[in-house]
Every structure is written in structure tokens, then in C-alpha cells.
Amino acid sequence: xxxxxxxxxxxxxALSLAGLPQTARAHGGVGQDPWNPAHLSNLPSDIRxxxxxxxxxxGAPIAAAQQFALYLTIPGTQFVALHFDDFRCRNKIAxxxxxxxxxxxxxxxxxxxxxxxxxxxxxxxLISEQNAAFIEIQDGSRExxxxxxxxxxxxxNWAGTRN
Length: 163
Known about the structure:
Elements: H1 4-17, E1 22-23, E2 25-26, H2 38-41, H3 45-52, H4 54-58, E3 63-64, E4 69-74, E5 77-83, E6 87-88, E7 96-97, E8 100-109, E9 112-121, E10 123-129, E11 132-138, E12 145-150, E13 155-157
Antiparallel strand pairs: 1-10, 2-4, 3-6, 4-5, 5-8, 7-8, 8-9, 10-11, 11-12, 12-13
């Protein structure tokens, strides 16, 4: 049986996390194989078709790790961010260079996905805060970060502060 001295702090901690900004999450949890084919086959068909086109440039077979596709949902909108640093490509220069690796962001629109951002960067994070979607782009330098906010049709530079 759990003691009250442990339960109440745990509940307080969990409640404190509820107010923190949400970041994108991977779907799935498929098996032990880091290059499980399900990481590609579980992508929405529009996106999967685009990713399959990389086979020619990469040299087949291509594969993806679990963190390749990260999903973020805000009310009425779903985003998918592809992180090509978690993409197995024999010809790595096709997806990564000195600026960083390719990252693509898609948004669901009437049941279909359209690409809304393509960037080569060290990392890209999708963030939801107070029902707004942001992208934080980290370039190759340690200090180089750009913040973009979803306008309802595209991502725009955001000079404001996140709450």
C-alpha cells in the first residue's frame, strides 16, 4: 500500500507538469528494432509517399527510427515533423550537410497532409503552448535559434515571447 507521504507529492508533481508547454511526441512504440519498418509504414499515406521518393537518392533500402516522425496536435490542427537525422540513408549527404539534417513539417488539411516547412538544421522542435503551435529551429551554432508561430496557414517568424 502506498503511503500518503509519497502519494501527495507525486500528485502535486503531476499536476505541476500539466501547465508546462507540450512538445511533439512519437507515435507507436514498435518493438526493439530501432529501424523497424513500421516507423515508415505507420506514416500518413501522403507523407509516406513523399518519404519513399528518397530511396533513389539514398540507395535502397531506407528506414527510420522511432523519433523520425513526431506528431503535435493543437485544437483543430495536427502537425507531423520529420527528422532526417533519424533516417537511414546510405548516401547521408542527400539528407544532411554542414548546416544540419533535413527537417520537414506537414499539416493536416481536409484529411490530407501538405508540407509547410523544409529546413536543414541541427534540430527542430514542435511546441504547443496555450493552443498555439510553435517551431523552434536550432541551427548549427549553439546560440542560433529561431522561433516560428503557426498563423493558421503557415509558420511565421515570432519575435514575441512564449508564456
